[in-house]
Amino acid sequence: MSRRAALLVLGLACAGCLATGLTAAPAPALPDAPAAQPAAQSGAPPAISPAPLSDAEIEQFLLKGRVTRSRGTGKGITGSTRATMTYGTLTHDAHIQTIDESKREFRSQQGTEFNFRDYWGYNIAGYKIDRLIGLNLVPVSVERRWRSGLAAYTWWVDDVLMDEQERLKKKISPPDLERWNRQMQMVRLFDQLIANTDRNLGNLVITNDWGIWAIDHTRAFRTLPTLKYPGNIARCDRQIFARIQQLDKASINKAVGSHLTGYEIEAILKRRDAIVALIEQRGDDGLFDWKR
Q1: 22 in Cβ contact with 199 (< 8 Å)
Q2: Predicted structure pTM score
Q3: Is 148 a member of any domain?
Q4: Could you give the CA distance from residue 111 to residue 84 in angstroms, rounded to a whole number?
Q5: Which is nearest to 272 in space by CA: 145, 83, 132?
Q6: Residue 252 lies in a domain
Q7: Percent of the chain with pLDDT over 70
Q8: pLDDT for 220-252, tens place per residue?
Q9: Residue 94 pLDDT > 60, yes or no?
Q10: Residue 46 included in any domain
Q11: Coil, strand or helix: which one is 88?
């Protein structure tokens, strides 16, 4: 079922923010899982899945839907909210984040960061840049008021199987290792492009079709001009690489609006140049053709 299935009443459980980051090198491939047995057939006709919602339709739902219930997500450290929303005939969940915290100096397990910011608007910028380069690994996110202030409303991912932390803990192998590794390569590349300092195994969500969704980007978009983990740049989808090459200040500014500063956009472009250089060094070996 699509992540945007219009008949879902509630979004399924989504991963939160845990404390472990991705390693600099791609994780070693695990052995293939046993092939799934086909389901028993019956005389009943196959069910017809509803048409998936477009990004524009999801944005309208998040912008105009009425919140009928809200509660804590139960995970993460920034006190975010899970809300059930209704608009027209559709009922679905959203992830609401209001965090906007700045510190001159911030200490964590990863070290000390200066000019630290944890900001709800980076979720929206992450979604917009993801679509700008054609990645489609980040759920739709919009700006909207929540109670007394502004917030990011993000579509709650449907059909969640597990998160990456649970997969590794249970030693579950993806059914298609080539597809899985390519998805992970794109997640790592994206995190280097947006300077995401808080990617962890809990916010890589795996759906029933073994697609990966990268959630929670409130600690991305640092102004570092260089790549923090250049070893995470391995290969890139050919079409996405072309779009990354075409990024410029005007296109990013148009996409993200006020959610990024000029300094943050300039830093993206400098990191983009470093990514392009690394991929070009690999020639054809650095590119592949991949469909989400």
Answers
A1: yes
A2: 0.81
A3: yes
A4: 37
A5: 132
A6: yes
A7: 80
A8: 999 999 999 999 999 999 999 999 999 999 999
A9: yes
A10: no
A11: coil
Nearest to 16 by CA among 187, 235, 165, 182: 165
Q: What are the start-end ranges of the H helices in 154-261?
A: 164-170, 177-193, 238-246, 249-256
What pLDDT is stored for residue 73 in this prediction?
A: 79
DSSP state of 200: B
Of 7-21, 75-89, 151-165, minimum mean pLDDT range: 7-21
User: Distances from the Cα of 233 to the Cαs of 74, 184, 292, in angstroms?
Assistant: 33, 11, 19
Give the whole-angstrom CA distance, residue 243 versus residue 224.
Answer: 22
pLDDT in tens, 131-174: 999 999 999 999 999 999 999 999 999 999 999 999 999 999 99
Classify residue 49: in a domain, yes or no: no
| β 141-146/149-155 pair status | antiparallel
Which residues lie across from 206 on neighbouring strands? 162, 212
The distance from CA 237 to its chain's CA centroid, rounded to whole angstroms, is: 17
Provide the 10 A C-beta neighbour count for residue 84.
19
| Burial zone of 178 (CB within 10 Å; 0-12 exposed, 13-18 middle, 19+ buried) | exposed
Q: For residue 155, what are the domain limits?
A: 55-288
Q: Could you give the number of structural domains in the chain?
A: 1
